[in-house]
Amino acid sequence: MTDIVVGQEASNWSDVWAVAKVAMRKAVGTGVFDCWIAPLFLEKVIDGVATIVAPTTFTRDYVHGRYIVTIERALVGAGVSSVEIITTEAAPKPAEKPSDAPSAGSLGGRKVPLALKGVSNTPNPVRVPDSTQTFGTFVIGPSNEFAAKAAQRFVEVGETDMDLLFIHGGFGFGKTHLLNAMALEATANGRTALFLRAEDFMRRFLTALRSNETLAFKEELRGFDLLLVDDMQHIGGRTATTNEFLHTINAFADFRRKVVIAADRLPAAIEGLADDVRSRLQAGLTVAIENLDRDTRLAILKAKAASLGRKLPRGIFSERVLELLADELDVSPRELIGMLVKLATYADLTGKPITLEAAKEAVANRINVRVQPITIDEIQKKTAEYYQLDLRELHSARRARRVARPRQVAMYLARELTSRSLPDIGRRFGGRDHTTVLHACRRVEALCKGDSAFQAEVDFLRKTLDHSRVARQ
C-alpha cells in the first residue's frame, strides 16, 4: 500500500480506505463490519494520524471502544501510527467515488442526501436503494395499481393527511421495488430517506439498549424526512423493540414526517404485535399488492427480457416463450424472472436458441423446496456474529461472561430450534455434557423472564435464524 502524504487527493484516500476495509471485514466478520465499519470513511492522514469520520456520535464512541486497534492495524501499511475518530458534525465529507457513496444522514441540523448504489447482499444497517428500481421501471397492472399510485402520492412534496403507508403482499410481488422507488424519489426532491429492514431496526436498537445509548439511536433515526421499513413481519413480540418502533412512528407523525412499512401480511395477521402497535399500523393507509394477473406478469417478463437482451445479446426470447412463462399461475414474479435469467444465461453461453421446449423444461424442473431445518452450525455462526465473538470461542473452555452467556444462548436456541439431543448439542459446543446444556437452557429461560432487554436479544436471534431459513427456500 502506498504511503499517504499531506495534500494527497481525497480520491486516493478512498482507494487506501477501500483496501483497508477488505482487511477489516476479514478481521471482524461481515456482520460486525457492515454494522459498524462500513459507515466510516477516511478523511485524511497527516503526520501519521488518520482522521476517520463516523456518521453519529454513537457510532464514533462504539467503534472507538471496540475496533480502534483493528482500524490501526489495517492502516499500518499506509504509514498510520494512530487513528482519530470524529463525526460528520465536526468535518465535511469529501467527494467520493460513486461506488463508495455513503448512505443518508441528517446530522446536526444539516441534511445529507441519500447516496445511491446497488443493494448489498449482506445485512447492512442501512439498506441502500437499488437505483434501477424506480417508479418508471415498476410495471403497473390491476393487482398493484392502487399500491403504486398510493406510493407515488405519499412521497410527493407537500402537505398530506397521510403520515403512515402500509404495503402488504406476497414475496416477490414488488413491495421492495416500491420502497426503493420512494426512497429515490424523496432523495431527488432534496429530502432525506432512511431505508431499513425490520431486522436491522431491531439489531441497531438492541445494540443501543445494551450500550445505554438509546437516546443517540432515537436522535439519529428521527432526523430523516422519510423512514422506510421492509419485512415488518419480522418484528413481533411484546418487547422493548416493538415499543420503540411505535414511539418512532408517533414521533415521525408529530414532526409531520412520513413512515412507509412493507410486510407479507396485514397488520392484524402479524404475530406477537402488541395491541397498541397493531392499532397504530391499522390507522395508516393500508394497500395490497395482490397476485399479479397474467397480462401484468407478461409485461414484467417483456421488460426484463428487453433488459437482459442488452446484456446477453444471444438471450433472445420469442413471444411464445414469454407467454408460456406468464401462464404459470403459482409462481411469483421473482421466480418467473429467475427462470428468465437462467434461460437467457444458458442461451448466451452456449449459443443455443431459447426454444419453447427449453422453456417447458425449465418450468417442469422447478422444484418446490421444503423449509430447510436450522442447523447448530447456523445457530453458532449467527450467535457469534451478533455478540461479536470468534466462532471458536463458543467451542472453547473460556468462562468469561462475554463468552459464556452467548454460548448459553446458542445452546438454548439449539435445543429449541433443532431436533438434536442434549448430549449431541453438548458435543457440538466443545465436548460438553448434557447437564451443562440443560443448565444453560434453564439459565437463559430465567434471564428472559427477568430481563426484557435480554429477552429481546434472544427473540432477535430466533427471528434472524427463521428469516435466513425462509430466504433459502
What does this structure look like?
There is one protein chain. The protein has 473 residues and is an alpha/beta fold. It folds into 4 domains: 10-96, DnaA, N-terminal domain (GMP Synthetase, Chain A, domain 3, 2-Layer Sandwich), CATH 3.30.300.180; 120-289, P-loop containing nucleotide triphosphate hydrolases (Rossmann fold); 294-364, Helicase, Ruva Protein, domain 3, CATH 1.10.8; 376-471, Orthogonal Bundle (Chromosomal Replication Initiator Protein Dnaa, Chain: A). The chain is 51% helix and 11% strand. It has helices at residues 10-28, 30-37, 57-66, 68-75, 145-154, 175-188, 198-210, 214-221, 240-254, 275-282, 294-311, 319-326, 333-350, 356-364, 376-386, 391-395, 401-417, 422-428, 434-450, 452-471; strands spanning 41-46, 49-54, 82-87, 105-107, 110-112, 164-169, 193-197, 226-230, 258-263, 285-289. Strand 4 and strand 5 form a beta hairpin. The longest helix has 20 residues, at 452-471. The radius of gyration is 24 Å and the shape is globular. The two termini are 42 Å apart.
